[in-house]
């Protein structure tokens, strides 16, 4: 199957259950084919769980949902060694993290110790239990959710954990017409139940290989570096983006170019992803937060102030 046909079939299949949210779906697909993870920050009931489940069904991947609660332990995620009285040996019972698509639901409701158990697996695609290392099956992605308006009983993700997410996105409420379509579909049956695979895990691995070969001009690389550098120099920002952000922005831009059937990255690819890649990585100074300044506003200023030297707007 043609690489563009694969991507389009996956997106169209997900849109059978998630209506009018193509931009959010595209960004998740970009992150998946770029080898990254996604933090979905939005209010309850707008379809975060359904979207992730639809993605897993569309690609025929192993899917596990982990409901993060205050009493959740690291071993509940990674697995645990259990003594077998018959054999006299310890046997490793795998945890839900040993799947391909992980929904980490309400990740900010569990303790920092449990949150940190995801660090190794998100970065290195492996877990270590009792001195033994276990590889995660590819393709692998963690899609974590958190509620932006409810803070009681939550543990904000530390910067080290946030930096592991390639993107942070919001889905938002549907438009009136799309919500009407949703009501008509769901009043008869749940369309998620009838969703069939349109691709295989091997297709995602193939798309990752193709995305890695998308050409990035040195001027685009310097543009990315300039954007990241600007986050470290702005007066409003206390903590700027890390070098990992530079890599993530580059990889996402390659993924977006592939999504639009191009063999090269343009400045518009980079600009369209700056908010998603950087908004969760910068920390504003307290005095600016008190004034009501948002990180998105500062990122807008950065985009408008950083030029793309020697490259036309739509190359």
Automatic annotation (TrEMBL):
Residues 34-175 form the AAA+ ATPase domain. CDD domains: AAA. The keyword Nucleotide-binding applies. Keywords: ATP-binding, Nucleotide-binding. It comes from the Bacteria. GO terms for molecular function: ATP binding; ATP hydrolysis activity. The keyword Cytoplasm does not apply. Transmembrane segments: none annotated. SMART domains: AAA (SM00382). Pfam families: AAA_3 (PF07726), AAA_lid_2 (PF17863). Belongs to the MoxR family. This is MoxR-like ATPase. It comes from Caloramator quimbayensis.
């Amino acid at each position: 199957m043609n690489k563009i046909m694969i991507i389009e079939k996956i997106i169209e299949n997900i849109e059978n259950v998630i209506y009018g949210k193509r931009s959010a779906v595209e960004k998740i697909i970009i992150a998946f084919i770029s080898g990254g993870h996604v933090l979905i920050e939005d209010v309850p009931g707008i379809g975060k769980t359904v979207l992730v489940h639809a993605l897993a069904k569309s690609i025929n991947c192993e899917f596990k949902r982990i409901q993060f609660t205050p009493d959740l332990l690291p071993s509940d995620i990674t697995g645990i060694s259990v003594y077998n009285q018959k054999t006299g040996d310890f046997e490793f019972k795998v945890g839900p993290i040993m799947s391909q698509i992980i929904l980490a639901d309400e990740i900010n409701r569990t303790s920092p110790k449990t949150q940190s158990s995801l660090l190794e697996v998100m970065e290195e695609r492996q877990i270590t239990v009792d001195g033994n290392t276990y590889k995660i099956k590819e393709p692998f992605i963690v899609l974590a959710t958190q509620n932006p308006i409810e803070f009681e009983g939550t543990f904000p993700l530390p910067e080290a954990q946030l930096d592991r997410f390639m993107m942070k996105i919001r889905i938002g409420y549907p438009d009136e017409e799309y919500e009407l379509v949703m009501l008509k579909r769901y009043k008869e049956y749940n369309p998620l139940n009838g969703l069939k695979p349109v691709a295989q895990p091997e297709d995602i691995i193939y798309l990752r290989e193709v995305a890695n070969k998308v050409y990035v001009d040195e001027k685009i690389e310097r543009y990315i570096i300039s954007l990241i550098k600007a986050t470290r120099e702005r007066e409003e920002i206390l903590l700027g983006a890390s070098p990992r952000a530079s890599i993530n922005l580059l990889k996402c831009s390659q993924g977006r170019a592939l999504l639009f059937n191009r063999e090269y990255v343009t400045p518009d690819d980079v600009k369209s992803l700056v908010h998603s890649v950087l908004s969760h990585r910068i920390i504003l100074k307290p005095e600016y937060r008190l004034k009501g300044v948002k990180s998105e506003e500062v990122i807008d200023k950065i985009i408008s102030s950083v030029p793309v030297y020697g490259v036309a707007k739509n190359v």
